[in-house]
């Protein structure tokens, strides 16, 4: 039996670590060709080598998704080299939590630039390719990474939560417009996943909160989330899983 992902061509952003890296590997193992994007070129090259060694096909696309021209150029490069793009995992994001009164305005801006503008740059450059793929009769998927922070009230998470609430609501709205064109739109809302995400947090209380959670319970692995993304894209073309919350069993 052929894998439902055989012949698909995917872009994964945030593929140099964590959820994106694991998802790129999973999609490639299931037969998709995968373009992997992030800033750290060395990590991407190592990932591409691992995928190739396992018999898959991958292309490293080092870029900063907040740079709209770079994202536009990447769309051209990927479609030239891999033929098309019919699966976009719009995943790169950063979490910099702090109390609002600390006025960490640079951190606020970094989250807005990456989690919102970066995601929109990818949508602007790749939606035309997704609709092309759907018109040609194949499956097409736009999958974003939101968070349980999109709906939960977590102290100090205000800016991050706001960016993820934007992603969840954006996904609902895009689904209506693009679903009509047979492009599936989905978002995943993970709880705690063991990745590099907490490493960037500077607020000591917030860092401790996440470190404690990782220490106390069996949190999700990036591979758990990757499996979910692959599942969404593997459904028959007329089935759109729209919003999936993935929590570690023991996380409240
Ligand atoms: P990581 O920090 O491990 O991964 C983040 C990825 O984004 C890295 O590959 C990083 O690569 C990339 N990235 C950062 N800045 C840019 C940029 N300017 N341009 C391109 N790529 C960039 O964390 P996760 O895997 O956990 O995060 C992935 C997504 O999952 C994020 O959207 C996050 O908000 C979300 N999430 C994570 C949860 C968790 O508990 N871990 C829970 C819920 C949601 P590089 O630095 O090389 O550019």
Layout: helices, strands, pairs:
Elements: E1 9-13, H1 18-29, E2 33-38, H2 41-53, E3 57-62, H3 68-82, E4 87-90, H4 105-135, E5 141-145, H5 158-179, E6 184-190, H6 204-216, H7 222-234, E7 243-246
Parallel strand pairs: 1-2, 1-4, 2-3, 4-5, 5-6, 6-7
This protein binds NADPH dihydro-nicotinamide-adenine-dinucleotide phosphate (NDP).
NADPH dihydro-nicotinamide-adenine-dinucleotide phosphate is lined by residues 13-20, 38-40, 64-66, 91-95, 114, 118, 145, 147, 190, 192-193, 195-197.
What does the model show?
The chain is α/β, with parallel strands linked by helices and 252 residues long. The protein has a single domain (9-246), classed as Rossmann fold (3-Layer(aba) Sandwich), CATH 3.40.50.720. 47% of the residues lie in helices and 15% in strands. The chain has seven helices and seven strands. It has a seven-stranded parallel sheet, with helices on both faces. The longest helix is centred in the middle third of the chain and has 31 residues, at 105-135. The radius of gyration is 17 Å and the shape is globular. Bound molecules: NADPH dihydro-nicotinamide-adenine-dinucleotide phosphate. The site of NADPH dihydro-nicotinamide-adenine-dinucleotide phosphate has 29 residues, from helix 1 and helix 4. It comes from Saccharopolyspora phatthalungensis. Belongs to the short-chain dehydrogenases/reductases (SDR) family.
Question: Key terms for this structure?
Answer:
252 residues; alpha/beta; Rossmann fold; seven-stranded parallel sheet; 7 helices; 7 strands; 15% strand; globular; binds NADPH dihydro-nicotinamide-adenine-dinucleotide phosphate
């Amino acid at each position: 039996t052929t894998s439902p992902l055989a012949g698909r061509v995917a872009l994964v952003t945030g593929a140099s670590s964590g959820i994106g890296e694991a998802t790129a590997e999973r999609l490639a193992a299931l037969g998709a060709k995968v373009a992997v994007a992030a800033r750290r070129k060395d990590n991407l090259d190592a990932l591409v080598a691992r995928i190739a060694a396992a018999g898959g096909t991958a292309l490293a696309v080092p870029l900063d998704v907040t740079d709209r021209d770079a994202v536009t150029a990447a769309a051209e490069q990927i479609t030239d080299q891999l033929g098309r793009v019919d699966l976009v995992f719009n995943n790169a994001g950063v979490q910099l939590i702090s109390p609002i009164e600390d006025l960490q305005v640079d951190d606020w801006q970094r989250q807005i630039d990456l989690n919102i503008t970066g995601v929109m740059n990818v949508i602007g450059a790749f939606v035309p390719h997704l609709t092309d793929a759907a018109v040609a009769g194949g499956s097409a998927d736009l999958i974003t990474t939101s968070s349980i922070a999109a709906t939960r009230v977590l102290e100090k998470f205000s800016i991050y939560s706001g960016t993820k609430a934007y992603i969840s609501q954006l996904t609902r709205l895009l689904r209506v417009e693009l679903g009509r064109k047979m492009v599936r739109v989905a978002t995943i809302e993970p709880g705690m996943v063991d990745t590099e995400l907490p490493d960037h947090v500077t607020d000591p209380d917030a860092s401790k909160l996440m470190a404690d959670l990782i220490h106390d319970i069996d949190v999700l692995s990036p591979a758990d989330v990757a499996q979910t993304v692959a599942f969404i894209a593997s459904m028959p073309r007329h089935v759109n899983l729209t919003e999936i919350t993935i929590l570690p069993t023991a996380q409240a």
